[in-house]
Design brief:
Oligomer: single chain
Order of helices and strands: HHHHHHHHHH
Bound molecules: zinc ion
Largest sheet: none
Amino acid sequence: MDILTHALSGIATGTVIVSFSDKKHKGKLGLIGLAGFGAVLPDLDAISLWSKFDSILGSFLGLKNSGQEIYFSKFWYSHHGFLHSLMAGVIIALLSFFLIFVLKRRLKMFSFLDLLQNLKNQKIYVFSFIAGFIIHLIEDMPTPSCVWGGVNFLWPSKIYVGGAGDIWWWNNYDIFLIVISVIGLNGIVHVTSKFIRINTRKITAVVFFLGVVLSLYQIKTRDFDFNYTGHTPKYQQFEIKSKKIQEKILGEKLYNLMLEFDNKIPVNF
Ligand SMILES: [Zn+2]
């Protein structure tokens, strides 16, 4: 799925997580930001498609394969490999937490108990990052098999999960709009809670759940099989078909607005 929808899905997840936090304003923004960041990070492995990857990183690391080959292979460090696993999310979250903890102590001595206590106090930040990370992995599952056959969700297991081809890689405008709606509605809930006593936890969770159900419905009712294994000569045809489906779902007016937005942003969307 496209990186923008991934990022916003992380933020939508964050709008629920903050309801369970008694942190101040800055802390809550941090939680939402971390969920959004976690939801972007798995696609960092797309760096191997960078035009200067081979000449800079490839030669520095002494890699035998080109960035393009790495991306479209099934090495543990290929796209949809390790970085698209639950384990990666947990390792990155805990390592980052540890590094920040050490830096905050200005590299002074600390006890293991001190570290654990700190983790207990800040666990919601770690959780928020991992939740965003997991949302990304789940969102990639209904995309085509391509060369990977899904995402390596349970790494170090070699099993790849997903690759269903229910949706195209991008231009899933309907899902994007659902995600934006969840963020907007939960934003309204949080603002309203400043004036009226409401059960923020329950309402934001229900809004998020409804967003998930609606997205699932949209994904499963595309009425077209986008799946392919390896590479496909029908790439352009699939892309056109996906846009046709969007036009049918959204109606001409909204579709054209989304298309205009799509053409303006510099990422695949
Ligand atoms: Zn991804």
